Structures
1.
Amino acid sequence: MSNALIGKVAVVTGGASGIGLASVEGMLAEGATVVIVDRDEAALNALQKQHGDNVVTLAADLLDPAACSALVPRILEKTKVIDIFHANAGLYVGGDLVDADNDAIDRMLNLNINVVIKNVRDVLPHMIERGVGDILITSSLAGHFPTPWEPVYASSKWAMNCFVQTVRRQVSPHGIRVGSVSPGPVITTLLSDWPAEKLAEAKAKGSLMEASDVADALIFMLTRPRHVTIRDVVMLPSQFDL
Ligand code: NAD
């Protein structure tokens, strides 16, 4: 570890579990103060106890429009500054499209697309005013390859990859970096929603990643000097037939 994030304030949505939690741990190890946003209050309380003043925990269900709108102002009230915003919270809908129900589709598209776009919109004025900032988005390999076992989920991540490419061009003149990480299957609770036969196949092929692998990629991007920008990391699992 290089202590490269000492003095920085980072925000991680969906930071109480899985990839978000690994991102939190990676940034803490680099010396950042981390605002952990999640709907899981019990997990947040445990993280607050564990990390003390190095973290700020913020309970919010980002699918609640009022909570989503209040997020950035609530954070700035507590920390005054946001250097890094990692939009990570996401849901999964997999399997045959004909089996996907309205509520699951709406919630997933709302969290994976609308909430990310709104959170990034809300943090940008602060970063533009300061002339610096890093925005990271957890996308997915499913946003690069047409994965036929998850058309709804894959659509949300293709949308995110388009968002990353376009908003980056809009805000880079203001000194703001926008990057994404696109992992293949990672061992987290989200994976339990994968179609069972797909999960069995990935396990058999030994192609599952650890959340800490993803955090390593995020920290690598964040700790590059600003004139050597690594923008998007696509993490291809070995032995995965894509
Ligand atoms: P996870 O379920 O372990 O963690 C998701 C976290 O988000 C949880 O702590 C949960 O409480 C929180 N969350 C969910 N809905 C929320 C809401 N409405 N408001 C606030 N918090 C909410 O899942 P994960 O695998 O770590 O997923 C994180 C991101 O990684 C997602 O965007 C997902 O699409 C992406 N991703 C996951 C995989 C994988 O295989 N696990 C692969 C590629 C990308």
2.
Amino acid sequence: MIPKGGDFSEKIVLKNESAVSPSSPVTLTPARHCVGGALRVMVRRQRACKVGGRGMDRIRITGGQKLNGIIPIAGAKNAALPLMIASLLTDETLILDNVPRLADVALLQRILGNHGVDITVNGKRLGETQYDGQTLHISAANIIDTTAPYELVSRMRASFWVIAPLVARMGEAKVSMPGGCAIGTRPVDLLILALENLGAEIAIDKGYVIARAKNGLKGGRIVFPKVTVSGTHTALMAASLAHGFTEIENAAREPEIADVADCLNKMGAKISGAGSSHIVVEGVPRLKGARHRVLPDRIETGTYAMAVAMTGGDVLLENARVELLQTPLDVLMRCGVSVSPTNAGVRIARNGSGIAPVEVTTAPFPGFPTDLQAQLMALMTRANGTSRITETIFENRFMHVQELVRLGARIQLDGDCATIEGVDALKGAPVMATDLRASVSLVIAGLAAEGETMVNRVYHLDRGFERLEDKLSACGAAIERLSG
Ligand code: UD1
């Protein structure tokens, strides 16, 4: 249950949160500072919140089965998270449809609850093979706390983004720096740059970024020195409520940015150019409620497309849209995979032919996404020849390499470049991964490996893939979750 805005408890105990992180229970002490001045009775209430609670689960795969059937693609995690955060910009209700059931979404619900946001969740699974995303009714009518504590922000980096709507609407925000993560240092300097360009005063104190704009933000010109999704989301949300015009140069062009901008426009924002590298925002004094459907997840689409490429077979990725992942689909076609858009989604097939090797460099959209790099590498371990994959977005995003090697892959790393020599067969083994996309690359490898592969630390998968084992087993994979 999500805490109610008006009477949110002062102390929450997060128990069994292992689906998000394996760490022990955390005690939070929030809400010292209540914007709006209302004196609130802080009711001490202990909540035993469980996000999945399946952190020690494992996934067992017996490789060698082809995939055939239909896989429904869920709403995009990377759009759902900023859309939920955008609810902080208005005191009216934002309704989001097609929100995926993921541990990251559940955690963000809790984080928003900490600020006083009310969220109700509707939407049932329709049946074994039918899925329907959740509908969230999100109301930030009463923001009771503009602080986002370390204990929460450190669990999910994207929660740092609350800084933008909070400072834009409330005039101040105090948000913990997210810290490092498994795929590199991931700084927030460009988010701060965006807010400073809009007139926010920024201070760093005891690991927190404090942003203030007592008289509101002012439109300005933001020129990002590198393409950043988080920076662009921050700039868009902040500029929507700033006085005057904002220009964003070298903006990220990811479809999730355009999706969020679309929703903000429904809420009354005046944004043009989202989806291109030059965005113009005319600030408005207030935003209103709206209803918005989250676009399909292009990373989930690409992941299952690579799984089919790996095993062979023929699968319809229902609801998928080719224009969201043209580059990865082009790469798959170069590998010898058949890709056919249909009215219902995208059909992926590989029958008979082997997998041709490719050379790929990750890049911001519309380039090859870093979030599909690990999955492509798993596929290339079975290619007929030598492939090369260069990672340009995140340093240290090769954590899956050693685990793929445990399955018999031949991979050499040289800085940001991996050379993969295709092998005739992978052999099942116990493996584990340290981030979301790396975990799923091991599942893809396991689907084609001889014998049994046990993927440990499944909580990473639950952060970003809804019912992965159900979707794959419905298409013939021998895959099951073992409770930890
Ligand atoms: C988002 C996605 C993530 C994806 C990534 C790149 C979400 C929730 N996450 O992450 O899945 O892998 O885009 O497509 O949408 N950088 C800085 N300073 C900053 C911010 C970023 O140097 O202040 C750097 C990062 O370290 C990285 C690059 O910019 O090297 C791109 O990061 P960014 O696009 O911001 O990624 P995220 O938004 O964190």
